[in-house]
Amino acid sequence: MDDAGNPPTKRWAFLSEDALRHPLASMLIGFVLTGVVGTLLTNHFAELRQQEARAIEQRDARRKAVLEVSRLFTERLGRAEALAVAIEAHAAREVVARLKQQYDDADMRALVVRQEAILLMREAMLETDFESLRAEIDGRLVTKRMQPLRECLDRAGARALANADGAAVLRECRATQLLTESRACGDVVSDALYDLASLLAAKAADPDAHAERIRAKNRDRIAQACP
């Protein structure tokens, strides 16, 4: 009890109320709240900037991978065409053997880098979109054109190295047509992959209408270029 007979709790209530009425109290409380809120906002925006920086870094890595895939794909087709020309011209066995080895090496490099690009592209697409696009590319470019071209050149090269008519095999398996179709289809696929690589990572919980239009457009482009 104080001198007026008030219990301690009531006494502190009076003191607190008096303190809050002091002109400096509002200023002090505002200062504290401003500091707390300011810190929270600063941390929030710093985290957003870090997320944006990571997204840009991932996007650039995808673009770089796609460009490398495109470069190796072009090299692969160039080696295939050089080998086909040599076989068609009945070049010496050592020339055919050297060109065949260069084609095999380019083929292996392209396959290794392709796997890296696939993993990176998965980050930029929803799972269903990614699997759909990969199935389209595998079916239209790889299975329908690149694999038959590979088998054709393997058979023709083996015939040529055995001093037989490899050129006949090339005509039989339509090597020239497969090369032309592979190049036209591959160019469109490379362009489409670069467009998709430029998108920020997709989130299933937050679909992006613009990104979906880009994906749909490129699926249509691939379907038209690689029937």
Characterization of the model:
The protein is mostly helical. It has one domain (59-225). 85% of the residues lie in helices and 0% in strands. The chain is built from seven helices and no strands. The protein has helices spanning 8-21, 23-88, 93-123, 127-161, 166-172, 175-197, 209-225. Helix 2 packs parallel to helix 4 (127-161) and helix 4 (127-161) runs antiparallel to helix 5. The longest helix is centred in the N-terminal third of the chain and has 66 residues, at 23-88. The protein is elongated and about 105 Å long.
Radius of gyration: 33 Å
β-sheet strand percentage: under 5%
Based on secondary structure, the structural category is: mainly alpha
For the record, the count of structural domains works out to 1
- In DSSP terms (H or I, runs of 4 or more residues), the helix count works out at 7
Count of extended strands = 0
In N-to-C order, the SSE pattern is HHHHHHH
Features:
227 residues; 0% strand; single chain; mainly alpha
Question: How are the SSEs placed, and which strands pair?
Answer:
Layout: H1 8-21, H2 23-88, H3 93-123, H4 127-161, H5 166-172, H6 175-197, H7 209-225
Helix pairs in contact: 2-3, 2-4, 2-6, 3-4, 4-5, 4-6, 4-7, 6-7
